[in-house]
Amino acid sequence: MELKLHDTLTREKRVFTPIDPSRVRMYVCGPTVYDFAHIGNARPVIVFDVLFRLLRHIYGEKHVTYVRNVTDVDDKINARAAERGISIRDLTEETYKNFKQDVAALGCLPPTIEPRATEHINEMKTLIERLVKSDHAYVAEENVLFHVPSMKDYGKLSNRPLDEMIAGARVEVAPYKKDPQDFVLWKPSKPGEPAWPSPAGIKTPGRPGWHIECSAMSEAHLGEHFDIHGGGIDLIFPHHENELAQSVCAFHTPVMANFWMHNGFLQVEGEKMSKSLGNFITIHDLLKDWPGEAVRFTMLQTHYRQPMNWTLAGLRESQKTLDHWYELTADAAPGYLCADALDALLDDVNTPKAFAALHELRGEAAKGVKPAAACLKASAKLMGILQNSVAEWSAFRPGSTAVDEHKVVSLIDARNAARRAKNFKEADRIRDELKAMGVELEDTKDGKTKWKIAR
Ligand code: AMP
Ligand code: ZN
User: How far is the CA of 97 from the centre of ligand 2 (A)?
Assistant: First the structure.
């Protein structure tokens, strides 16, 4: 099996060869935990979950380590905790718990390790000291700054023109910077802000900048040089550019990660998602009305590198398709993987192409070809689709909690008993009672009764 992945740094699609096939290592930048994650945040989580599943399929479950960090120290967190009048710890714990619930409902496997920034402050300080000692960083007014001109190749990942990078860096005006592009590794904390004893001989307690946390945590859990580094396209500059600079200068490795992968941005109904436009959708709210698998299915209809337009119509379509797929595969045990679907995934995780192959299988399965249904089930599962039982899937109704499955089954039994006793009036009454619960029955030729939730 040959996997090809696109690397942002070299701007090419290459064959993926792990540094160590017995320990394939992937790092993805995780959430900053101050509020519910939105549907744009769900995109990298779902996309890299599919890649995680694919890598596990190729190299074996035990041979893939997936690290997704939690940013639990950040100015947005401080501000939100103050606004809500709760402690930072309570805010980050609550938000992280919600995030984990949300992404589990989207069918995502937990990463192997989910390190928290606040638990890696010492590693960050060690890294900062190292950069200061090697003249890649300096102390200025109790800040530690990375000195960008100290790195010859700075800017290769984002490949932006120098004047644009300077303009971008200027957003953060600081007169003590030696160069306008220099960025913060450590900054002093004001009273009331989270603070730790500072590195590099600085007296005032302080806190880390954002970029240094990922260099420190990836080294702690994956080593100085690993296979894949991922995140959304907006992270290329400055976050990933700066992570790369820090790690490469501290460890003298060539690239930090062999493959840099970035998902495209998600828009909602053709517009940038924003609170002011009123089109801001949290995963949490979406899950009140839609099954997580329909959300996941919708997300994977677009190739991960393309921009994506999230629409309600698309979500409805996904739900209908999945209704059909569940129905077709209800009695099938997972069979062989569909070669065309697997090939598509091996070609830079081309999920829309894989789904096109599955749609063809669905056509065969609908004609009653049993191996096609088995193949559809196995191949969909590889992408984290068709993970529920038919009953679980059909028990989900928008805006309602699941129906009581035991009650449905016992009413069906009672109805069948009434029919056997030729008490058709009672049988019809039970059918109506089930109908009122939103349950639709289908009596099959072989005398069984199937049920599903009417939509
Ligand atoms: P943040 O918490 O803002 O750092 O974002 C967490 C992850 O979500 C990062 O990988 C971002 O690149 C990604 N992300 C944020 N907004 C979007 C969006 N609209 N579309 C796709 N990815 C996004
Ligand atoms: Zn990061």
Answer: 20
Of all protein residues, the one whose alpha carbon is nearest to atom 11 of ligand 1 is 232
| Model confidence pLDDT, tens digit, residues 7-53 | 999 999 999 999 999 999 999 999 999 999 999 999 999 999 999 99
232 CA from centroid of ligand 1 (Å): 5
Say what the pTM is.
0.88
* 308 touches 351 (CB < 8 A): no
Q: What's the 34 CA to ligand 1 centre distance in angstroms?
A: 14
Mean of all residue pLDDT scores within the chain:
93
Segment holding 322, helix H or strand E: helix 312-329
The closest residue, in CA terms, to atom 14 on ligand 1 is 41
Closest ligand by atom to 279 CA? 1
Nearest to 387 by CA among 297, 288, 450, 282: 297
The pairing of strands 137-140 and 12-15 is unpaired
> What's the per-residue H, E or C state across 194-235?
CCECCCCCCCCCEEECHHHHHHHHHHHHHCCCEEEEEEEHHH
Closest ligand by atom to 236 CA: 1
Whether omega before 111 lies within 30 degrees of 0, making that bond cis, reads no
Tokens read off for 20: 């160590």
Beta strand residue intervals within 290-349, DSSP E: 308-310
130-176 residue pLDDT tens: 999 999 999 999 999 999 999 999 999 999 877 776 666 656 668 89
Cα–Cα dist 29/240, whole Å: 9
| Residue 367 confidence (pLDDT) above 60 | yes
For residues 356 and 278, what is the distance between their CA atoms, to the nearest angstrom?
Answer: 33
